[in-house]
Amino acid sequence: MRFQIGHAGLNVTDLERAIRFYVRVFEFEVIRESTEGDRRYASLGYDGGTMVTLWEQSEGRFATGSPGLHHLAFQLPDMDAVRRAEATLRELRVRFAYEGIVPHGQGRQSGGVFFEDPDGIRVEISAPSGAEGLTAPVADAPTCGFF
């Protein structure tokens, strides 16, 4: 038996703000949405398939020091696509963990950008190659584990 991730469910503080962010950055479609009462959520994805569900069920910011989600990682086909996503993120003035595109580890071909969504949830957008020759922010460990 082989499992695949079906979707990620994220608690957010402001559903409308989170929808705007994820639709703008990832070009997701809103698949399903409920804004009634205390059951506010939206399923986002492509071609009718859900990748992320946003649940308006939290307050404050993402607690990086608590057990649970470490970060979300999305992959694009090439580094040019990552650079386009990075430009959108800069327009949105997100908080980046590192300046610009960094490799997943020193000497690795893969790499990307590491940032926070509006609720402080850590997110990565990467490509499998194109980061050759860049300096890793953490020389002896996976970059994605330490942001």
Q: What can you tell me about this protein's structure?
A:
The structure is a single chain. The protein folds into two domains: 1-57, 2,3-Dihydroxybiphenyl 1,2-Dioxygenase, domain 1, CATH 3.10.180; 69-147, 2,3-Dihydroxybiphenyl 1,2-Dioxygenase, domain 1. The mean pLDDT is 95. Strand 3 (39-46) and strand 4 (49-56) form a beta hairpin. The chain starts with 7 loop residues before the first strand and ends in a 20-residue tail after the last strand. It is globular. By secondary structure, it is of the alpha/beta class. The longest helix is centred in the middle third of the chain and has 13 residues, at 79-91. It has two helices and eight strands, in the order E-H-E-E-E-E-H-E-E-E. A four-stranded mixed sheet has the order 1-4-3-2, covered by helices on one side. Strands 5-8-7-6 form a four-stranded mixed sheet.
